[in-house]
Design goal:
This protein has 265 residues and is an all-alpha fold. It folds into two domains: 48 residues; 211 residues, no CATH class. 85% of the residues lie in helices and 0% in strands. It is built from eight helices and no strands. Helix 4 packs antiparallel against helix 5, helix 5 packs antiparallel against helix 6 and helix 6 runs antiparallel to helix 8. The longest helix is centred in the C-terminal third of the chain and has 59 residues. The chain is elongated and about 95 Å long. The termini are far apart. Keywords: Cell inner membrane, Cell membrane, Membrane, Protein transport, Signal, Transmembrane, Transmembrane helix, Transport. One of its GO terms (cellular component) is plasma membrane. Belongs to the exbB/tolQ family.
Length: 265
């Protein structure tokens, strides 16, 4: 093989290599362009607003529909506020019950035990009312049996604690029982206006009916979404309240026995 033949073969090989690289580059560029086009199309699809979503329901709704939706939002906010605040309150009462078990009953007298409890504690409040009732058993009240008088004083204090623990639960019960009907009212009102618009347009195709009616049905779903947490929260808080009240009643019963024992000395 001569030098000329070798040079010719090398040039042919280089030409083929360059052609292959050019083809690969063109294929890669085409793939990149297709991927960019697909990504752009997906971004455009995502950015497009759903014409039958909540935004459309608010934009196309009249005064009654918007008011109904706002009422459901307020009911939801109120129910969640009550749930969180009652959970915090019940947690505080559980800590107060633990403090009463560990501090109050270790004291020499009820007065000393009361001072060991934190200010604002429900158990300190009951102890104060019990001591107050025992000290005021004079005059006309002296005609009342001491046992009965102390029992009445402690029971009033326990009832006040229980009443305070039940504050807000009526809100959850009201929301849980009425929110589905408020949402249903919004649905009925929305369907009525949707049918009126369809009748005025003179077109009853599926695309003209599905959108407005679907928007109206969202109101029922919102009503259920508001009611379900309220009902579950109500039942949960009531069960937790019963557990806390067992601690309160037990403390009141033990305190009653201690006060009677001190009076006999």
């Amino acid at each position: 093989m001569t030098i000329n033949n070798i040079g010719s073969a090398a040039r042919n090989w280089l030409a083929l290599a360059c052609a292959g690289l050019t083809s690969i580059a063109a294929t890669a560029q085409e793939t990149a362009i297709n991927a960019a086009s697909a990504a752009t199309g997906a971004a455009v699809a995502v950015s497009e607003e759903n014409p039958y979503g909540l935004s459309a329901l608010w934009a196309q709704g009249d005064f009654v529909a918007k008011t109904t939706l706002l009422i459901l939002v307020v009911m939801s906010m109120a129910s969640w506020y009550v749930i969180f605040t009652k959970l915090v309150e019940q947690s505080k009462l559980n800590k107060q019950a633990a403090a009463a078990r560990s501090n109050f009953w270790e004291a020499d007298t009820v007065e000393i035990g009361k001072d060991k409890l934190a200010a604002g504690s429900a158990f300190r409040y009951i102890a104060e009312k019990g001591l107050d009732g025992a000290s005021k058993h004079t005059g006309l009240l002296g005609a009342v049996d001491f046992n009965e008088w102390v029992t009445m004083s402690l029971q009033r204090a326990i009832n006040n604690v229980q009443s305070r623990m039940q504050d807000g639960l009526a809100v959850l019960a009201t929301v849980g029982s009425t929110a589905p009907f408020v949402g249903l009212f919004g649905t009925v009102w929305g369907i009525y206006h949707a049918l009126v618009k369809i009748g005025m347009s003179g077109q009853a195709s599926i695309d003209k009916v599905a959108g407005p009616v679907g928007e109206s049905l969202i109101m029922t779903a919102i009503g259920l979404a508001v009611a379900v947490p309220a009902v579950l929260g109500y039942n949960w808080l009531v069960r937790r309240n019963k557990a806390v009240m067992e601690e309160v009643n037990a403390f009141g019963s033990d305190l009653h026995a201690v006060l009677l024992g001190q009076a006999k000395k």
